[in-house]
Amino acid sequence: MVEYQVKKNRKKLYILLIFIIFVSISAPLSVYIYRDYKFKNYMDQAENYLMSEKYGQAIDTWNRVISLFPKYKDECLKDIDKAHSLIKSKAVFQDGEDYLQQGEYIKAIEAYNYVSKEDSSRFAASREKIENCKRLFLYSQLTFAEGKAITQDYKAANDMLLSAKQYVPDSILDEKINEYSDLNNKLEEARRIEEQRKLEEEKQKEEQRKQEEKKRLEAQRKQEMLNSTAIPVLMYHSIDFQEGNNLRIPKDKFRAEMKYLKDNGYTPISLDELYGCLNGTMSPPNKPVVITLDDGYEDNYTSAFPVLKEFNFKAAIFIITDNIDTNGAFLTSEQLKEMSQNGIAIESHTLIHSDLSKLGYEEQLRVLKQSREKLESILNSPVNYIAYPSGKFNSFTENAAKAAGYKLAVTTQKGLAQKKDGLYFVHRMAMYNSQDMTKFISLLSGQ
Asked: Is the pTM of this model over 0.70?
């Protein structure tokens, strides 16, 4: 009985032992199975969030897995990085959409390129978007380039297409680039020719300006010279001494004065040359002087003429025409002709030495014109100059002298011949017998 009880107890003990062993084995296994189930459930849930683009919930799920199952941390972190990358790709894709709407096709292409590399789920959509952007970009660049070409800005058009070519390598771009290059070359050549023409034109204008400036300066110089021109016009009368007559100068004194002119470099000029100097058509020679004799005394031929020929001097004699061939004290027609042919100008001193200041216009015109015509008929040459008798004139005289055909008139007013006095009021320096050589020299300078 005892033996049976022992066997029975041993059996119970074996059963208890087996139960304990079973419990000790099955409990951990159950826990492991449960935990594995939970892990897979979380991971599947996170993947579903990821596929439905609920990236924030996916990241939260992976972070919870890390906290519950630390040994899967590295795997979860990789998934989290992927989620962040997908978040960025989604944002960049949206940026591409915005750029596309704004017509910024290059930025849109760059955005879509990034997405196609980083997000396989959007690869197809991104590539399609890229091709669409390229077409739109090509069209826009061709349109802009055409606009530039219309304004002949072919270089800008070409630069635009060359820039587009790195994004859209299309054969139409090559054609247009070649076309615009040719047009630009032609335009540049045309511009070069035009610039050369303008340079030549500007050069000619500059040369013309220089010539005009040269002429202006030359005219100014001549005018200044003309304004500053002061020529002594010596006024003699008779060259034959007469006691008590200061206007009659002995021949030897006249010769001494002429010799002084010769020895000191003076250049006797004609009335034609004086006229040119005063009207600016010619420049005066060095130390010019004009020798004139009034009235036409016979001694002008017998005394003055030989001295003038000796020194080869020009001179002018103003003739009272009614005395020609009628008064033995005055010159004859033959004497006038001879002197006229030997450098002595024969000019007018009116018909009868009239006091012009007392005559009206018509009477002045008559006496001035008739005396001129008489001399011209004798000499068979023009008579252009007049000496007002006794240097007297009035307000009619200048116009009467012009109307009678005279170009210049001399007076007895003391001074040098200058433009400022006018061509019909030329000053002279009177020569008197009472003057010594010192006075003669001072008269040459207008003193």
From this structure: no
